[in-house]
Amino acid sequence: MYPKELVLPMKAELTDAGFEDLTSAEAVQNAIKNTEGTLLLVVNSVCGCAAGMARPGVKMSLTNEKTPDKLATVFAGFDMEAVAEARRFTLPYPPSSPSIALFKNGKLVHFIERHQIEGRNAMMIANDLIGAYEKHCGEMINN
């Protein structure tokens, strides 16, 4: 498990952008099962591809006209129970961190795995997500 002094600033990059920090299995279940509309769930991590591509790309994607209704995040190597529960909802995809999941009414409709983040820049990640928002999300609500 990573020390909180290392993790908290990385969590803040998303929570400061409006993401709810889910730290328990129950919180993950509630977010996924009880969100009407769309939920973007980011499995955050300490790796360089999370810092250089995933987090910046996710934040860039939120400038689109259509965005998810709810934003949430869990942190790999820190919020162990929450991450395990999130990964249960992203099956049949193997565990991956960082990763980005879009749910619509509790069903996984788009998933970006680590191997789809590595070697791509933040704008490419943002464009991938914007395509998913255009397909699955309604008009901008809270972002």
Short description:
43% of the residues lie in helices and 19% in strands. Helix 2 runs parallel beside helix 4 and helix 3 packs across helix 5.
What would the keywords be for this entry?
143 residues; alpha/beta; Glutaredoxin; 5-stranded mixed β-sheet; 5 helices; 5 strands; 43% helix
Strand and helix map with partners:
Layout (H helix, E strand, L loop, with lengths): L3 H12 L4 E2 L3 H10 L3 E7 L3 H14 L8 E6 L4 H10 L9 E6 L2 E6 L9 H15 L7
Parallel strand pairs: 1-3, 2-3
Antiparallel strand pairs: 2-4, 4-5
Helix pairs in contact: 2-4, 3-5
Structure characterization notes:
By secondary structure, the chain is α/β, with parallel strands linked by helices. The chain has a single domain, classed as Glutaredoxin (3-Layer(aba) Sandwich), CATH 3.40.30. 43% of the residues lie in helices and 19% in strands. The chain has helices at residues 4-15, 25-34, 48-61, 80-89, 122-136, and strands at 20-21, 38-44, 70-75, 99-104, 107-112. The protein has a five-stranded mixed sheet with strand order 1-3-2-4-5, sandwiched between helices. It starts with a helix and ends in a 7-residue tail after the last helix. 40% of the residues are buried. The mean pLDDT is 93.
